[in-house]
Write a structure and sequence with these properties.
Shape: elongated
Strand order of the largest sheet: 6-5-4-7
Number of strands: 7
Helix content: 40-55%
Distance between the termini: 48 Å
Order of helices and strands: EHHEEHEEEHHHHE
CATH class of the largest domain: Alpha Beta
Largest sheet: 4 strands, mixed
Strand content: 15-25%
Structural class: alpha/beta
Length: about 140
């Protein structure tokens, strides 16, 4: 970490309001506390950081005419009357999973089968709306 770019946590505490204004209106702020380094950022900036993260889902047409979506990178499978309903259900379940992950972050972030989910969790938690997140779901025909 470039020490010239960091602000001490003591200085952040002394000037909290101005630091918050900088983070929201200008750019993220790098903070150093003893040996700990962190970044304080607006959620819009974080959304930009995860802009390359997409939720890819395999899509299966069922015999009853419904559609099943299976997220490739997350253990989430949903079924809906049509693709739009299935996509909405997938987004709902992704957000629910992201909230659960965040609530129990210590356990989920350390689990070998869940650790890699963090970019998806951050993407889901920083979306402004379910509709915005729906636009990040790429549906591809699955192989049976």
């Amino acid at each position: 970490m470039n020490d010239m770019l960091t602000i001490s946590s003591s200085d952040v505490r002394k000037d909290w309001s101005n630091v918050m204004d900088r983070v929201i209106r200008e750019k993220p702020v790098f903070i150093k506390r003893t040996r700990d380094n962190m970044m304080l950022s607006a959620t819009e900036t974080i959304w930009q950081l995860v802009s390359g993260v997409k939720f890819t889902a395999d899509m299966y047409a069922e015999a009853d005419g419904s559609v099943t979506l299976s997220a490739r990178d997350l253990d989430i499978v949903v079924n809906g009357a049509n693709e739009a309903a299935a996509r909405a259900a997938l987004v709902r379940d992704i957000v629910e999973y992201a909230e659960e992950y965040y609530q129990d972050f210590d356990r989920y972030s350390r689990a070998p089968n869940r650790r890699g989910h963090l970019p998806y969790v951050i993407k889901a938690l920083t979306a402004k709306s379910p509709e915005e997140l729906e636009g990040e779901v790429l549906c591809q025909t699955g192989e049976t």
